[in-house]
Amino acid sequence: MGNQNVSLASSNGLVHDFEIYVGKGTLPPSNHGLGISGDVVMRLIECIPKNENCKVSMDNWFNSYNLQCKLKFVGVQSIGTVRSNRIAGCVLANDKQLKSGECGKTTTCGECQKMVCCRKKKVDVPRPASIGEYNSYMGGIDLHDMLVELYRVNIRVRRYYLRIVYHLLDMYVVNSWLLYRRHCKQLNEKTMSLLKFKLEISHALLQCGKVQTPKRGRPLSNTPPSKKEELLLQDQLTMLDMMKLDIGQFES
User: What's the pTM?
Assistant: First the structure.
């Protein structure tokens, strides 16, 4: 089994806070009365400014009617899907009414494309404003997980706490790269890839503490290395990273 994190992230994939999920003991007892799924949301929003039009989106594992009321009370707006057993007696349209189109009136905000199987093409359909709002904020966690999975160091260990540490190191590198990319975009500078960014970090850590003394003799030529030499250097840095730094992979 893998370890799970409950994270608070922006839509661009930047993680702001997280909790390691261990079941009922994830959080200390609280007075919210929302259960583990609602209490962890109240814990993660502590870093969000209150009453400043900040919005939080979540899926149906976290969301409930009581949580929506609690978030509104503390000054944080929220939106998300909800399960049928968490609506606190609210009367909503059933699946049959939704399929037939008898779902009442809602505020539409533009259109979206939907694939029609019988026509084998996409058609424009009206989209409710709440759906557009929900889709604009969701996906930050999935984006962060995808970036972490791209360049994991695949090391198998039996000690579970080492897997957590390795995964946190991968998260820190991805967060740093996202901040670096945002900074380069503000300065209109070219951005290095995530792989090269991790190689630069590994090289800097390997050189940490070493005193480089200038060599005697004629200075070396400034001719840039060939593509083959650059690929060989990257492979060597990756091997040194695995052998000396012991930066491993968290397997989910």
Answer: 0.71
